[in-house]
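@channel anyone free to eyeball this complex?
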Amino acid sequence: MSFVKGLKCRECGREYPKEPLHVCEFCFGPLEVTYDYEAIKGVLTRDVIEKRPNNMWRYRELLPIDGDPAVGYEAGFTPLIRARNLEKVLGVSELYIKNDAVSYPTLSFKDRVVSVAVSKAKEFGFEVVACASTGNLANSVAANAAAAGMESYIFIPADLEQSKIVGTLIYGTNLIGIRGNYDEVNRLCSEIAGKYGWAFVNINIRPYYAEGSKTFGFEIVEQLGWKPPKHIVVPMAGGSLITKVWKALKEMKALGLIDEIDTRIYGAQATGCAPIVTAVKEGKELFKPVKPNTIAKSLAIGNPADGYYAAKTIRESNGWAEDVSDEEIIEAIKLLAETEGIFTETAGGVTLGVTKKLIEQGRIPRDESIVVSITGNGLKTQEALEGKLQEPAIINARLSDFDELIKSQGKYYAVKG
Ligand SMILES: *Cc1c(COP(=O)(O)O)cnc(C)c1O
Ligand SMILES: [Zn+2]
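replying in thread with the prediction:
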């Protein structure tokens, strides 16, 4: 049973059937999945949702799958944490971390979009799934394709972090490193998708794939007791997640799951790759593509597919956008770890760094509820911290050596009896 009506062009409104299509034939606008909200209204209530298992499929009427999902039964419903220690440091009264660093199975929010895309590819009858990736998507497509019993081809910039490469290869996929940046990888993949007829999750299956991101927004609202927060800060790569968090709020309102939307959405990028942020700051509708140069490789998309709509979402919600330097990213990664015990990847450093900046600028008031979107795990981007942390002290296995060490540090020097 599906409530999907079909696909619709976001620009000219022309409608298309439920097929593996992603651009409008008439105006080249992107296609989006549409639903029969009137029919869903009677079916999907707070009560129904709350009684379902704790995974992203508890909102399944708002996801574009006809049958049961092929993969991703454990994806989603990650923790929303009240960050009391971080509140003190930042001088704010109500701060939450939505923690997709512990997403199942590959430790980033991409497990949400891939669960939908791989399930949909299977429904369409594809045998091969593929993607162009900045790293996390590669991990998730490879893992979920393995679980779904499908062949996969993964294309990445050749210079990605080691953990993202190993964390892809391990699933027995076909991994292809391209000499070039993500935008070049993506351009090549568009050509391959047409020629080989594979299901590229973020190209020809993109309208379905992107819907999975809505569950990140649904969960935030449900976990706050069906009360949307006043401010949500979201990292931007291709700019899809941020638009879908906004769509999630609008759908919840349309279905009567929430009464009103009084939420501002903020976009976060690294200074070394901030095309969407720059457009927002300059008040321009169109962004200018850039050549990425940042340690936040998962966000390093210089020509974001949904950049225009991301900027529009930010304007529509009365939010704002900011960027942070590589140094600020590392400071923020450490801050989150030292205050809340959460190790995020560089993208999370971008999001928290930007949140801190927006609070200091007075753009986000200190006495309103704030949600920081942590989308990936720090174990995958350890290179970024090389030389940035204290080295462990190395001693011999002798008590006197330890005594000496403790004494030299001048800390916790209390010897019993
Ligand atoms: C892909 C990714 C994003 C951003 O996703 P878009 O939808 O392309 O904007 C954010 N954080 C992490 C860790 C990612 O891997
Ligand atoms: Zn169109």
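from a first look: The first strand starts at residue 4 and ends at 9.
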